[in-house]
Amino acid sequence: MNQEQMNAAMESLTQWLAHPAELGKAPAKIECAGEFELHDLHYYIFRYKKSLMGKWLLGVCGGYEGDGLEHCGHVFSEMEDYDPATAQEKAIALVEVMRSYWMEQARRAEEQKENPGTFVNYVLLKEANWEDREEEFAFLTQMPQDENGSINPCFGMTQGEFFTQGLPQMIDNAKGIGLPEGDVPATTYFLWENDKIVGKFNLRHRLSEALRNGGGHIGYSIRKDCRGRGLATEGLRMVLEKARDIVPEEEIYLHAQLQNLASLRVMEKNGAYIHHQDDTGYYTRIKK
Q: Three-state SS across the chain?
Protein backbone atom coordinates (compact mmCIF):
# COMPACT_ATOMS: atom_id res chain seq x y z
CA MET A 1 0.00 0.00 0.00
CA ASN A 2 1.21 3.49 -0.89
CA GLN A 3 1.02 5.05 2.59
CA GLU A 4 1.38 8.63 1.41
CA GLN A 5 -1.38 8.21 -1.17
CA MET A 6 -3.65 6.49 1.36
CA ASN A 7 -3.13 9.34 3.84
CA ALA A 8 -4.05 11.85 1.14
CA ALA A 9 -7.20 9.86 0.38
CA MET A 10 -8.12 9.73 4.06
CA GLU A 11 -7.70 13.50 4.35
CA SER A 12 -9.86 14.07 1.27
CA LEU A 13 -12.68 11.88 2.63
CA THR A 14 -12.43 13.57 6.03
CA GLN A 15 -12.80 16.99 4.43
CA TRP A 16 -15.72 15.76 2.31
CA LEU A 17 -17.52 14.39 5.38
CA ALA A 18 -16.97 17.68 7.24
CA HIS A 19 -18.93 19.60 4.59
CA PRO A 20 -22.19 21.15 5.95
CA ALA A 21 -24.19 19.10 3.44
CA GLU A 22 -22.72 15.83 4.79
CA LEU A 23 -21.73 15.13 8.43
CA GLY A 24 -20.96 18.78 9.04
CA LYS A 25 -17.89 17.74 11.05
CA ALA A 26 -14.88 15.45 10.80
CA PRO A 27 -15.60 11.82 11.69
CA ALA A 28 -14.76 10.81 15.24
CA LYS A 29 -12.69 7.93 13.89
CA ILE A 30 -11.60 6.86 10.41
CA GLU A 31 -9.49 3.92 9.21
CA CYS A 32 -8.39 2.51 5.89
CA ALA A 33 -10.09 -0.86 5.35
CA GLY A 34 -8.77 -1.90 1.95
CA GLU A 35 -7.88 -0.90 -1.59
CA PHE A 36 -8.76 -1.93 -5.13
CA GLU A 37 -8.19 -1.13 -8.79
CA LEU A 38 -11.01 -0.07 -11.11
CA HIS A 39 -10.87 1.39 -14.65
CA ASP A 40 -7.04 1.52 -14.34
CA LEU A 41 -7.31 3.77 -11.28
CA HIS A 42 -6.54 3.09 -7.61
CA TYR A 43 -9.09 3.42 -4.80
CA TYR A 44 -9.12 3.18 -0.99
CA ILE A 45 -11.93 1.83 1.18
CA PHE A 46 -12.48 3.51 4.53
CA ARG A 47 -14.59 2.84 7.56
CA TYR A 48 -15.47 5.73 9.85
CA LYS A 49 -17.63 6.65 12.84
CA LYS A 50 -19.77 9.74 13.33
CA SER A 51 -19.16 9.43 17.10
CA LEU A 52 -16.77 7.33 19.13
CA MET A 53 -19.59 5.05 20.27
CA GLY A 54 -21.26 4.94 16.86
CA LYS A 55 -21.23 2.18 14.29
CA TRP A 56 -18.73 1.88 11.46
CA LEU A 57 -19.85 3.40 8.14
CA LEU A 58 -18.49 2.91 4.62
CA GLY A 59 -16.66 5.51 2.53
CA VAL A 60 -14.43 5.48 -0.54
CA CYS A 61 -11.88 7.82 -2.08
CA GLY A 62 -9.67 7.42 -5.09
CA GLY A 63 -9.19 7.63 -8.78
CA TYR A 64 -5.40 7.82 -8.40
CA GLU A 65 -3.05 7.23 -11.31
CA GLY A 66 0.15 5.45 -10.36
CA ASP A 67 1.76 6.95 -7.26
CA GLY A 68 0.15 10.37 -7.75
CA LEU A 69 -1.47 12.21 -4.87
CA GLU A 70 -4.27 13.90 -6.86
CA HIS A 71 -7.46 11.87 -7.16
CA CYS A 72 -10.06 12.42 -9.87
CA GLY A 73 -12.86 13.63 -7.59
CA HIS A 74 -14.22 10.22 -6.60
CA VAL A 75 -14.92 10.86 -2.89
CA PHE A 76 -18.21 9.57 -1.57
CA SER A 77 -20.20 7.89 1.17
CA GLU A 78 -23.87 7.05 1.50
CA MET A 79 -23.30 6.61 5.25
CA GLU A 80 -24.35 2.97 5.08
CA ASP A 81 -23.11 0.38 7.56
CA TYR A 82 -19.62 -1.00 6.99
CA ASP A 83 -19.52 -4.78 6.47
CA PRO A 84 -16.11 -6.28 5.66
CA ALA A 85 -17.78 -9.05 3.65
CA THR A 86 -19.39 -6.60 1.20
CA ALA A 87 -17.23 -3.48 1.60
CA GLN A 88 -15.35 -3.77 -1.71
CA GLU A 89 -18.49 -4.63 -3.69
CA LYS A 90 -20.33 -1.64 -2.25
CA ALA A 91 -17.32 0.65 -2.68
CA ILE A 92 -17.13 -0.27 -6.37
CA ALA A 93 -20.85 0.48 -6.70
CA LEU A 94 -20.25 3.92 -5.13
CA VAL A 95 -17.46 4.63 -7.60
CA GLU A 96 -19.72 3.75 -10.50
CA VAL A 97 -22.34 6.16 -9.16
CA MET A 98 -19.69 8.89 -8.97
CA ARG A 99 -18.41 8.15 -12.47
CA SER A 100 -21.95 8.48 -13.82
CA TYR A 101 -22.43 11.73 -11.90
CA TRP A 102 -19.22 13.34 -13.18
CA MET A 103 -19.88 12.15 -16.73
CA GLU A 104 -23.25 13.89 -16.51
CA GLN A 105 -21.57 17.03 -15.17
CA ALA A 106 -19.16 16.94 -18.12
CA ARG A 107 -22.11 16.66 -20.48
CA ARG A 108 -23.78 19.64 -18.81
CA ALA A 109 -20.56 21.62 -19.01
CA GLU A 110 -20.48 21.05 -22.75
CA GLU A 111 -24.10 22.21 -22.98
CA GLN A 112 -23.23 25.32 -20.95
CA LYS A 113 -20.76 26.39 -23.62
CA GLU A 114 -23.70 26.68 -25.96
CA ASN A 115 -26.16 27.95 -23.33
CA PRO A 116 -24.39 29.90 -20.53
CA GLY A 117 -27.68 30.38 -18.69
CA THR A 118 -27.65 26.85 -17.24
CA PHE A 119 -25.96 25.80 -13.99
CA VAL A 120 -23.61 22.83 -13.58
CA ASN A 121 -22.77 22.92 -9.86
CA TYR A 122 -23.96 20.49 -7.21
CA VAL A 123 -27.24 21.58 -5.58
CA LEU A 124 -28.94 20.22 -2.50
CA LEU A 125 -32.29 20.87 -0.84
CA LYS A 126 -32.24 20.88 2.96
CA GLU A 127 -35.04 21.46 5.46
CA ALA A 128 -34.52 24.34 7.91
CA ASN A 129 -32.44 22.98 10.80
CA TRP A 130 -30.33 24.00 13.79
CA GLU A 131 -27.01 22.78 12.41
CA ASP A 132 -27.12 25.29 9.52
CA ARG A 133 -28.58 28.19 11.54
CA GLU A 134 -25.72 30.61 10.86
CA GLU A 135 -25.84 30.08 7.09
CA GLU A 136 -29.66 30.27 7.14
CA PHE A 137 -29.55 33.56 9.06
CA ALA A 138 -26.92 35.00 6.72
CA PHE A 139 -29.07 34.13 3.71
CA LEU A 140 -32.30 35.55 5.12
CA THR A 141 -30.70 38.86 6.13
CA GLN A 142 -29.77 39.39 2.46
CA MET A 143 -33.31 38.82 1.21
CA PRO A 144 -35.90 41.64 0.97
CA GLN A 145 -38.99 41.76 3.16
CA ASP A 146 -41.37 41.30 0.22
CA GLU A 147 -40.34 40.49 -3.32
CA ASN A 148 -42.83 39.45 -5.98
CA GLY A 149 -45.18 38.22 -3.27
CA SER A 150 -42.53 36.15 -1.47
CA ILE A 151 -42.60 37.31 2.17
CA ASN A 152 -39.50 37.06 4.37
CA PRO A 153 -40.86 36.74 7.95
CA CYS A 154 -37.32 36.97 9.35
CA PHE A 155 -36.58 40.33 7.71
CA GLY A 156 -34.93 42.74 10.16
CA MET A 157 -34.31 40.09 12.84
CA THR A 158 -31.10 40.09 14.80
CA GLN A 159 -29.15 36.85 14.93
CA GLY A 160 -30.39 36.29 18.49
CA GLU A 161 -34.00 36.82 17.44
CA PHE A 162 -33.60 34.42 14.53
CA PHE A 163 -32.09 31.74 16.78
CA THR A 164 -34.78 32.11 19.48
CA GLN A 165 -37.84 33.03 17.40
CA GLY A 166 -37.49 32.82 13.62
CA LEU A 167 -35.84 29.42 13.23
CA PRO A 168 -37.83 27.67 15.99
CA GLN A 169 -41.03 28.93 14.37
CA MET A 170 -39.94 27.55 10.96
CA ILE A 171 -39.25 24.15 12.51
CA ASP A 172 -42.56 24.17 14.44
CA ASN A 173 -44.51 25.23 11.33
CA ALA A 174 -43.34 22.10 9.54
CA LYS A 175 -44.80 20.03 12.41
CA GLY A 176 -48.02 22.06 12.61
CA ILE A 177 -47.14 23.29 16.11
CA GLY A 178 -48.41 26.67 17.36
CA LEU A 179 -49.96 27.74 14.06
CA PRO A 180 -52.03 30.94 14.00
CA GLU A 181 -55.69 30.40 13.19
CA GLY A 182 -56.18 29.87 9.47
CA ASP A 183 -52.56 28.89 8.76
CA VAL A 184 -51.55 25.45 7.54
CA PRO A 185 -48.37 23.44 8.23
CA ALA A 186 -45.51 24.48 5.96
CA THR A 187 -41.95 23.23 5.57
CA THR A 188 -39.12 25.65 4.77
CA TYR A 189 -36.37 24.28 2.55
CA PHE A 190 -33.07 25.98 1.74
CA LEU A 191 -31.42 25.39 -1.63
CA TRP A 192 -27.65 24.96 -1.38
CA GLU A 193 -25.20 25.32 -4.25
CA ASN A 194 -21.96 23.73 -3.11
CA ASP A 195 -21.43 25.33 0.35
CA LYS A 196 -23.70 28.39 -0.08
CA ILE A 197 -27.44 28.87 0.37
CA VAL A 198 -28.86 30.35 -2.83
CA GLY A 199 -32.61 30.03 -2.37
CA LYS A 200 -35.55 29.33 -0.07
CA PHE A 201 -38.70 27.31 -0.81
CA ASN A 202 -41.84 27.08 1.33
CA LEU A 203 -44.04 24.01 0.89
CA ARG A 204 -47.54 24.33 2.39
CA HIS A 205 -48.85 20.90 3.22
CA ARG A 206 -52.44 21.58 2.15
CA LEU A 207 -54.61 24.39 0.84
CA SER A 208 -56.73 26.80 2.79
CA GLU A 209 -59.29 28.91 0.95
CA ALA A 210 -56.86 31.84 1.01
CA LEU A 211 -54.07 29.71 -0.48
CA ARG A 212 -56.38 28.12 -3.04
CA ASN A 213 -57.13 31.59 -4.37
CA GLY A 214 -53.69 32.99 -3.66
CA GLY A 215 -50.15 31.71 -3.20
CA GLY A 216 -50.93 28.02 -3.51
CA HIS A 217 -48.74 25.23 -2.17
CA ILE A 218 -45.25 26.52 -2.97
CA GLY A 219 -43.50 29.87 -2.72
CA TYR A 220 -39.83 30.49 -3.37
CA SER A 221 -37.09 33.08 -3.81
CA ILE A 222 -33.55 32.95 -5.21
CA ARG A 223 -30.65 35.27 -4.37
CA LYS A 224 -30.42 38.06 -6.94
CA ASP A 225 -26.79 37.33 -7.76
CA CYS A 226 -27.64 33.66 -8.40
CA ARG A 227 -30.55 34.10 -10.79
CA GLY A 228 -30.64 33.20 -14.45
CA ARG A 229 -28.73 29.91 -14.05
CA GLY A 230 -31.58 27.43 -13.65
CA LEU A 231 -31.42 27.21 -9.85
CA ALA A 232 -35.10 28.06 -9.36
CA THR A 233 -36.10 25.43 -11.93
CA GLU A 234 -33.99 22.74 -10.27
CA GLY A 235 -35.06 23.76 -6.75
CA LEU A 236 -38.74 23.69 -7.70
CA ARG A 237 -38.27 20.27 -9.29
CA MET A 238 -36.90 18.91 -6.01
CA VAL A 239 -39.64 20.53 -3.90
CA LEU A 240 -42.29 19.09 -6.23
CA GLU A 241 -40.96 15.61 -5.52
CA LYS A 242 -41.63 16.20 -1.82
CA ALA A 243 -44.97 17.89 -2.48
CA ARG A 244 -46.29 14.86 -4.35
CA ASP A 245 -45.87 12.79 -1.19
CA ILE A 246 -47.37 15.41 1.15
CA VAL A 247 -50.20 17.45 -0.36
CA PRO A 248 -53.64 15.78 -0.50
CA GLU A 249 -54.93 17.77 -3.48
CA GLU A 250 -54.80 16.18 -6.93
CA GLU A 251 -52.86 19.13 -8.35
CA ILE A 252 -50.16 21.38 -6.94
CA TYR A 253 -51.14 25.06 -6.96
CA LEU A 254 -48.71 27.93 -7.63
CA HIS A 255 -48.96 31.64 -8.35
CA ALA A 256 -46.75 34.08 -10.27
CA GLN A 257 -47.31 37.84 -10.29
CA LEU A 258 -48.07 39.40 -13.67
CA GLN A 259 -44.71 41.14 -13.93
CA ASN A 260 -42.76 38.06 -12.82
CA LEU A 261 -42.60 36.18 -16.11
CA ALA A 262 -39.33 34.51 -15.11
CA SER A 263 -41.13 32.72 -12.27
CA LEU A 264 -43.91 31.69 -14.64
CA ARG A 265 -41.33 30.13 -16.97
CA VAL A 266 -39.79 28.23 -14.03
CA MET A 267 -43.21 26.74 -13.28
CA GLU A 268 -43.87 25.87 -16.91
CA LYS A 269 -40.50 24.11 -17.18
CA ASN A 270 -41.69 21.92 -14.32
CA GLY A 271 -44.89 20.97 -16.10
CA ALA A 272 -47.25 23.74 -14.97
CA TYR A 273 -50.13 25.04 -17.03
CA ILE A 274 -51.95 28.34 -16.55
CA HIS A 275 -55.32 27.59 -14.97
CA HIS A 276 -56.46 31.22 -15.03
CA GLN A 277 -55.20 34.74 -14.40
CA ASP A 278 -56.48 37.95 -12.86
CA ASP A 279 -55.19 41.41 -12.03
CA THR A 280 -52.64 39.99 -9.56
CA GLY A 281 -51.05 37.30 -11.68
CA TYR A 282 -51.06 33.80 -13.12
CA TYR A 283 -52.57 30.84 -11.23
CA THR A 284 -50.84 27.68 -12.35
CA ARG A 285 -51.33 23.99 -11.64
CA ILE A 286 -48.99 21.00 -11.82
CA LYS A 287 -50.46 17.52 -11.93
CA LYS A 288 -49.16 15.13 -9.30
A: CCHHHHHHHHHHHHHHHCCCCCCCCCCCEEEEEEEEEECCEEEEEEEEECCCCCCCEEEEEEEECCCCCCCCCEEECCCCECCCCCHHHHHHHHHHHHHHHHHHHHHHHHHHHHCCCCCCCCEEEEECCCCCHHHHHHHHHHCCCEECCEECCCCCCCHHHHHHHHHHHHHHHHHCCCCCCCCCCEEEEEEEECCEEEEEEEEECCCCHHHHCCCCCEEEEECHHHCCCCHHHHHHHHHHHHHHHHCCCCEEEEEEECCCHHHHHHHHHCCCEEEEECCCEEEEEEEC
- Predicted TM-score (pTM) above 0.85: no
Angle between the N-to-C axes of helices 261-269 and 231-246, in degrees from 0 to 180, rounded to the nearest 10: 60
Among the three residues 48, 83, 114, which one is the final residue of a domain in this structure? 114
Pair (170, 259) in one structural domain: yes
The number of folded domains in the chain is 2
Indicate whether 75 and 136 sit together in one domain.
no
- The pLDDT tens digits of the residues spanning 190-220 come to 999 888 899 999 999 999 999 999 999 999 9
Do 30 and 51 lie in one domain? The reply is yes
Instruction: Look at residue 120 in the predicted model and tell me its pLDDT.
Output: 45
> pLDDT of 62-94, one tens digit each?
999 999 998 888 888 888 999 999 999 999 998
Q: Considering only CA atoms, which of 35, 44, 37, 41 is closest in space to residue 10?
A: 44
Domain end marker among 86, 114, 142: 114
Domain boundaries, position 266 = 123-287
Residues 35 and 165 in one domain: no
105/130 same-domain check: no
